[in-house]
Amino acid sequence: MSVETTATIASFGGKLLKLKHKASTTNCDMAFNLFLPPQATTSSSSKVPVLFYLSGLTCTGDNCAEKGFFQHGASQKGIAVVYPDTSPRGLQIQGEDDSYDFGSGAGFYVDATRDPWSKGYKMYSYVTEELPKTLFGAFPQLDSSRMSITGHSMGGHGALTLFLKNPGKYKSCSAFAPIANPINCPWGQKAFKGYFGDDQQQKWKEHDAAELVKQWKGPLDLLIDVGTGDNFYKQGQLLPENFVKAAKEAGVDKDVKLRMQPDYDHSYYFMATFADDHIAHAAKHLLS
Amino acid sequence: MSVETTATIASFGGKLLKLKHKASTTNCDMAFNLFLPPQATTSSSSKVPVLFYLSGLTCTGDNCAEKGFFQHGASQKGIAVVYPDTSPRGLQIQGEDDSYDFGSGAGFYVDATRDPWSKGYKMYSYVTEELPKTLFGAFPQLDSSRMSITGHSMGGHGALTLFLKNPGKYKSCSAFAPIANPINCPWGQKAFKGYFGDDQQQKWKEHDAAELVKQWKGPLDLLIDVGTGDNFYKQGQLLPENFVKAAKEAGVDKDVKLRMQPDYDHSYYFMATFADDHIAHAAKHLLS
Prior knowledge:
- 2 copies of one chain form a homodimer.
- Chain A is α/β, with parallel strands linked by helices.
- The first copy, chain A, contains 11 helices and 9 strands.
- In chain A, a hairpin with a 4-residue loop joins strand 2 and strand 3 (28-36).
- The interface between A and B is medium-sized, with 25 and 24 residues.
- Chains A, B: Keywords: Cytoplasm, Hydrolase, Serine esterase.
C-alpha cells in the first residue's frame, strides 16, 4: 500500500507528483501521476475532490499530464487529477507487446477472465478499487467521498463504463472521443475477444457503455466531445451516436451532451482545447 | 519561397499548421509550426500580429506547440504564434549530431563564421530575415509590422539577443529561463567557440544579452521567468542576475521584470504555467 514519489514537479501553482506502487490486482508495479492543486498543498484543513483521467491506447499517465492541460482548470477549481497507467507492465505474457491495441497500453479497463491475461490484466479492479484505496491512504488531503471520472478514447470508454457500472461512486463523468460502443467496433471486439473470449457475449455487454446506459435510472449529466476530423471516429471505432441513441431509447438522454467539434482530431491538441470545459463539468458536481 | 503545409490541426479555436520550406540561409529544408488564431482563419480583413517563440536545446518547433499552452492565450488575444526549429537539419557536417548542446538542435540563433558550421548554421539570419519574409509572403493575414519575440532557455537567449540587436523590429520581448549571459556559462562558451572560434571575443559579445543590454537606449519592458528549482539555473547556465545587473548599470532596468518562480523547473510544465502571462505581455505591445 505504500506509494513511492519518484518526482515532484511544480505545475500551475500546484504539484504534479510522479508516483509508483506495488499493485496486487495487476500483479506488478504501477506508475501513476497525481496533480495536487494549490488548495491541497497548503496547510488548509479542507479536503479537495479528485478527478480520475483515464488514458487511451498506447498512452501512460504521462501523456495527458504533459499535453492535456487539465492542470490549468484543476488548479483554478481546486480539484486533484489522477492519471493512471493503461495496463499492467512487464508481466511477460507472450504477445503482450505485439499490438498497440491489445495487451500493454491497452488494458481496456476490464478484468480479463481469459488466460493468460487474467494473470494481471485487471484494470477495472485496479482503477475502481485498488488505486483509490492506495491514493486516499497516502494522501489524506484528498476527499474520498468526492470522485469524478473522465477519459480519452479507450479511456473515454473506461470513464463511461466505470461510471455506469457503479452508480453513486463517481459524482460525474465526461469523455473525449470515447469508444462508446466497443462490442460493435474493431478495437473493442479485439480486446473483449482477447480478455473475455469469443463466447462471452454477456461479459462483453457488461463493459459496453451503449449497453450499460439502457439500465441507467435517474439523471445522467454527461459531457462528450468528439472531433469531426477524428479519423477513428470516421472509421467507426467510436460510435458515439449509438450511445446517444441507446440513452434516448432508455429515456435518460436529456442531459447527455454530445458535442461534435468541427475539424478537431483525436489528439491531445483536441483535448487541451476542451480540457477547461471538462474540468468545469466535473466541478459542477464535485463542488456543489 | 514556397511553403508546404504538411498538416493542419485544430487547436483552441484556431489552426496549427505544420509547415516546411526550402531555406537558403540554412542550406536545407526547414520545418516550423504556425498557430493561426480564430481571428486569422475567418474572412476578417484585419491582420493579426505575430509572436515568434524560439525553442531551447534539443527541441524542434513541435515541443512547445504540443506542451507549451501558448495557443490558449494566443487564441483569446488574436495573436499568431510561430515555432521555428532550433538548427539546420541533415547538413552532414561531421560531428553535427554528437552533442545535445552543439550542432543539430543547438543553433544558438547565431550566424556561424567558422568552418564547417558556416555552411548552414545561420539561425540568426534565418529567424530574423528569411523566415519572416517567407511567412508574410505565404500568409497575408499576418501583420508584418507587428512582431514580438519570446523563447525558452537557448531560445530565451535568442529572444533577448534578437530583440536587443534589432531595436524596433520586435514590439516586445520576454523569456523563460534564458541563457542570459552565454559568454560566461559552459553552454554559451561551447557554442560560441564552435560557431565563431576562441579568438572572436567581440563576436561573442555581439550575441550576449548581458553585453547587448549595455548599449540599449530608451524603455525596456521585459518579462523574464526563471524557476528556483531549475537545475540549469543552479548550475550557472542561465545567469539571469548578470543580465539584470547589466541593465541596472545601463540605467534601463526600470521595466525589466525578473520573476523567480518558487520550485519551478526547466520543463514545459513551467512554461505552460506562465504562458498566459507571456502572451499577455506580448499582447500589451502588439495590440496597443
